[in-house]
Each structure stands twice: as C-alpha cells, then as structure tokens.
Amino acid sequence: MAFGRDQDIAGRETVALMPTLARNILEILASYQGTKYDEETEESPGKIMHELRLGEMARCMEIPFRPFYGSVDSTPLWIILFGEYVDWTGDVDFLRQHWNNILSALDYLDRDSQSGYLRYGMKRNSIMFNQGWKDSIDGITDEHGKIASLPIALCEVQGYLYSAWRSGAKLAERLGDKQTAQRLNGKAEDLKHRFSKDFYVPTERYIALALDGNNKQCAVAASNPGHLLSAGILDSQTDNAVADRLLAQNLFCGWGIRTLADDEAAYNPLSYHNGSVWPQDNALIVEGLCKVGRVNDGMRIMSALFEAAQGHLNLRLPELFCGFSKQFSKASPIWYPVSCEPQAWSAGAMFLMLKSSLGLVPDAVNRELTIRKPYLPPFLSSVRIANIRVGPDMATLYFSRSGGKTSCTIDKKSDGLKVVVEQ
C-alpha cells in the first residue's frame, strides 16, 4: 500500500538527511502518474496518485485503488518535493529526465484550478468525500458544525498550489526555460492577491478553513492555515496573526496544535480530524513558524511533541493522539486507540522540525549552504550533524546553545562548498 500525499510529506520531512528516499518517492509516484481520464479511479493526465493497493481485490478490479487518484494535494506536494530535492542535491540530470512529468503535473493543476482555486468534489458520489489530508467524512465543517458542501477549496491546498507554481518556476529556471518560469510566477502572484481577499476572516483575524460549494467561508479555527506560513502566500501581518491564533489556548493544547479549536461546534478531542493532534501537521506548522521569524513559538510546539514522544511506550510519535489539554493529562497525551504506528510522516516530523530550527537553506546547484538564524529548542543543548550532503559536497556542523543563543561551528566541509552562517 502506498499513499501519494503521505510519501510527498515524508520525503519533504527527511530530504535534508536522506535525499535518496525523496528521489525514490519522486520516481515511484512519477511512474504511476495519470495518463488518461478514468471516472472510477479519478485518474487524470498529469495527476499524482492518492493510494495504491496490490491485494486481490485491486488485482481483480473490485476496488478503484489500483491506483486511485482522489487526492487534491498529492500533485502540488509532489512538485514541491521535487524542488526541495533539487535544492539539496543539485541533481539537474534527474530533473531533466522528469521534466515532462513535471510539465504534465503543472498542466493538470492548470485544468483543475480554472475556477480560481484547486478544489475537489466536482465528481459526485466519489468513494472519497473529502480529498485533502483531513479526509474523514466530517473532516471539513463550518462554524455551525455542519459538514461543508462540495466542491471544496481547502485553504492549505491553495498554499500548496502557490508553492508548486513557485517551485515549478525555479525548476524551469534551472533548465533555462525562462518563459515557463515567468508564466508560473505570474500565476502564483495572481493567486496570492486573490487568496487574501477570499479566505481572510477579518472578525477572527484568521484564515478560513475552506470555501464550500457556495463559495462561503468555513470560518472555523483549524490547524490547516498553519501550513500557509511556509508557502509565502500571506503577507507578514497575516503571517503573524495566524501564528498568534495557532498558539492560543483553544488550538495549542500543551502537547501540540489541535486540528480544530476546542470552542468550535464540531470539536471532539477523540475525533480523527476535529480536535486531535497530528505530528506531521504540527511539523509543517513549525517549519512555517521558523520561516516567518516565529522560531520561539515553533520551538514550543517542537518541545511539546518531544515530551509527548517521551511518554510513549516506544518513545515514538504515532499517527495522531487525542487533543485533551495537558492540564488533564500531565504525564503523557491521551493516546488515540487505533492510531497507526510506526507511520512514516509521523516518524519524519522531528527531522523537519530540527532542520527548520537550524535554519538550513541549501542551494546545491550553486554549491552553497546557508544557515539562517539557528535556534535549538530548550531540550537540546547541542547538535552535531556529520557529513550532511549538499549536492556533491559535504559538511559537518556543530550547533550549541548558551545563554539563550545558538551558535554554529563548521567542523569541516568540502573545498568547493560555500557555507554562510547568519546569526
């Protein structure tokens, strides 16, 4: 069994330390990329799959998971991962080999965002009602607790779309295709302008979870807007407003950011997507907080998740856990009874948070590594990363915290690698 979205995010979490894993994910998903229109499996040319099963029912065509393509976000996330992989490896040959796959994925995004936003639910009676990462039947609700009507435009998916166009533009520039780069950057700028107008909820100083089938805002406080912080689709004022809201007590339970605030109508700390805490969700939020200069807040979340893992029997982060406040469960979170573990995108969460806290910004094509304002969380006094690869080069970095400040020492590096430390 394989999941496109999960693999995209797991690859993104670990690409700095395990770029070969990201390469394998990109290649496998490219090999299953859609080539035709199929109503049952929801395949479309250029689309990246949602789920693949290899069992008897799939082989006998009794279920559509062979593979099934009902995911609104696997395609933009795949392009984003491709951009990050090239940033870390400088593997322009691999990019050139798969450029037609990328162009096909970009064409699909153009077709499916003709309404102005990337939506799902245009096909009625799909076996997947919700097709974002909160894919349970009640995962997307309005402020009255009612399930949102189709078709739905999720806020974070528009951030992924924006990032995919920016990543696609950068990849096009790597290949000297300035015309494609200019077109994609223009599309991203237009989306950024429209997004703020349509998704911002002035009375809440927050971003709506989604637009429903009537283009009405689902004006609930959820974790999803946290994914926008790393995309760059918001202005700095809105970035800070979103960050403030995420760290408020109704969303931050002490163990992490809840999927839904505890004062919303649909909130249930025992639900799958309406009040629980997901490590991968929190890791993407931490990445964004670090990017917009809210590193202290990101480290609060990282420290909370680290403490949660210490309370687990296997010292690991499961798929999710319940969203009860820490004041009611001080030793450890209340574990979700059927949470999957181990799970790749939960296992990779700590790596993404650590990379973000250390401020690692690679540019392997130009043989550069920037370390931008590193900051270790309170539970770490030092970290040594030996032989981190940036394209053909390697460096060994030592980070230490003293007096509330984190410093970076370059123990060794390849002669051709330029390392810039911005304290």
Beta strand count: 13
| Tally of alpha and pi helices | 13
What is the share of helical residues?
A: 25-40%
Secondary-structure-derived class: alpha+beta
Tell me, rounded to a whole number, the average pLDDT: 96
Strand content: 5-15%
Radius of gyration: 21 Å
Give a quick summary of the entry:
With 423 residues, this protein is an alpha+beta fold.
Description of the molecule:
This protein is of the alpha+beta class. The chain has 13 helices and 13 strands. The chain has a three-stranded antiparallel β-sheet. It has a three-stranded mixed β-sheet with strand order 8-9-13. A hairpin with a 2-residue loop joins β10 and β11. α2 crosses α4 and α7 packs antiparallel against α8. The protein is globular. The mean pLDDT is 96.
What is the topology?
Elements: E1 2-3, H1 4-14, H2 19-31, E2 51-52, H3 56-59, H4 74-89, H5 92-97, H6 99-112, E3 153-154, H7 155-174, H8 178-199, E4 200-201, E5 206-207, E6 210-211, E7 217-218, H9 236-246, H10 279-291, H11 295-310, H12 344-347, H13 349-358, E8 360-363, E9 368-372, E10 382-390, E11 393-402, E12 405-413, E13 418-422
Parallel strand pairs: 9-13
Antiparallel strand pairs: 1-2, 3-6, 4-5, 6-7, 8-9, 10-11, 11-12
